[in-house]
Amino acid sequence: MEEILKQQRAFFESGATLPVKNRLNFLKKLRHAIQTHRDDICQALYQDLGKSETEAYMCEIGMALEEIAYFLKHLPSLAKDRTVRTPLSNFHAKSIIKFVPRGNVLILSPWNYPFLLSMEPLVDALAAGNTAVLKPSAYSPHTSALIQKIIQETFPPHYVETVTGGRQENQTLLTQKFDYIFFTGSTAVGKEVLRRAAENLTPVTLELGGKSPCLVDETADIALAARRIVFGKFLNCGQTCVAPDYILCPENLQQPLLAALQREITRQFGPQPLANPHYGKIINEKHFQRLSALLTCGKIAAGGKTSPATLQIEPTVLTDVSWEDSAMQEEIFGPILPIITYSSLQEALKKIESRPHPLALYLFSTDKKRISQITQQIRYGGGCINDTIMHLSTPYLPFGGIGESGMGCYHGKFGFETFSHKKSILCKRNWIDVPLRYQPYSRWKQWLLKHFLR
């Protein structure tokens, strides 16, 4: 590992990653490799997570290609120096921001969207001019092995290298001194990454998780809300960091909303979801057992069947769930959706505010005043009004958490800026030198300073 980092540092210091043309050429090579291996990627995702070809392309391959397409179009302008205003105190000077790469980057990616969440930060890092070491998850071995193959075919190891393996490899990587670390995963592991990074004063981006609430009020279109909630919650069997974790709705809305959710589950997944070839599986036995235990919370109002042999759990809706139940103590990260009712909206908002800041929040409402109030009042990473998870799909919005759901952001220009150092440069001219700042000081200098600096 040390030899790889030594080679990458030498390559970076040679300046080979600085020309925008070079970055664009390698992004094009990566795009070609992804397109060439499209069927292989779909197969690997099916083996690891049971993802259908449509879901694999829609949620992983296509979004990775879209991120590359964004930079092929916008990188030349993003990489240019930016001239900003200069105050009168620096008369006849020019203020410039240069976006320079951070250097050698470590990317630790998760298992739930193993291809996308490896490629997107890698694309952002390369667009910004960095070298990179990519460590995909051991929980998705088929996809991780294919990622390694794609990287080896596309990049020399002194530019991008892939390290496979489990916890031991993660620990080894975190002992090295990188210039930046980008981690996607659980809050618990994120804390360990942050602690280890602090030993070298290495800056980090942490993309974590949390219990993302979904509020439905009496002004919502219930049928459409149910359709979009079912899509966002049960996509990838609920193993999505921004999936709606639970629903909050008024007491008198629970029955019509529940009926709409039941209809929509049948509509999207059929009367027997476990027999649906497009419905995936839980990543492993450990997570299957954890999720199965949550089915004892409250009352099963829809779904609830499991298949230990295939590690599958039906899209499930729970009612009569309390805030003290185990399903409400941790991020569910699976196809189980509790509904909790409230008698007043303020009561519900206070409950959300009393918990760690969520990665996402979804609000189904047509009340503009209420929408403005909630989006302003509640602290959360990002979200949607009258939809779920789709804010994740655009390269023109930053994606990231707040508090325990993460720090930093990426996607599009925000990812470019994350992997760049903003170098401030003030260019002074030699033909004029205002003596105001130099000693000896005098009353007229003091008067002028007070006049201009206020």
UniProtKB/TrEMBL annotation:
The keyword NAD applies. One of its GO terms (biological process) is aldehyde metabolic process. InterPro entries: Ald_DH/histidinol_DH, Ald_DH_C, Ald_DH_CS_CYS, Ald_DH_CS_GLU, Ald_DH_N, Aldehyde_DH_dom, Aldehyde_DH_NAD(P). One of its GO terms (cellular component) is cytoplasm. GO terms for molecular function: aldehyde dehydrogenase (NAD+) activity. Belongs to the aldehyde dehydrogenase family. This is Aldehyde dehydrogenase. It comes from Candidatus Avelusimicrobium gallicola. The lineage of its organism: Bacteria, Pseudomonadati, Elusimicrobiota, Elusimicrobia, Elusimicrobiales.
